[in-house]
Specification:
It contains three helices and two strands, in the order αααββ. With 95 residues, the chain is of the alpha+beta class. The protein has a two-stranded antiparallel ribbon. The protein starts with a helix and ends in a 29-residue tail after the last strand.
């Protein structure tokens, strides 16, 4: 999670925690105490209540796209996004 503060690694800071993001050069110039303080601020942040956002944001925060419906569905299809596999019965060969 510390790597997310400087924009590296597998984790990405959420939009509500972006204010704590630090450049790599600034991060390396900070002392260990300052780094721990910044990390503690991240841990102390309160997560806002989940609300339905009207936009989806890309992982690099460059694109902001409107959310689309879950997916296209065939008429009469209720739950599954993909249609269910069907099994056809074997036909008897007439000789």
């Amino acid at each position: 999670m510390r790597m997310a503060l400087r924009g590296e690694g597998n984790f990405v800071l959420q939009s509500w925690a972006q204010k704590l993001r630090v450049n790599c050069m600034v991060w390396s110039s900070k002392s260990k105490e300052e780094r721990n303080c910044l990390f503690q601020k991240l841990l102390d942040l309160k997560v806002p209540k989940i609300r339905k956002e009207k936009y989806q944001i890309s992982t690099n925060f460059l694109l902001k796209l409107p959310k689309t419906p879950r997916s296209a569905r065939k008429p009469g299809q209720r739950k599954r996004v993909c249609s269910a596999k069907t099994k056809s019965s074997k036909r008897l060969k007439l000789e």
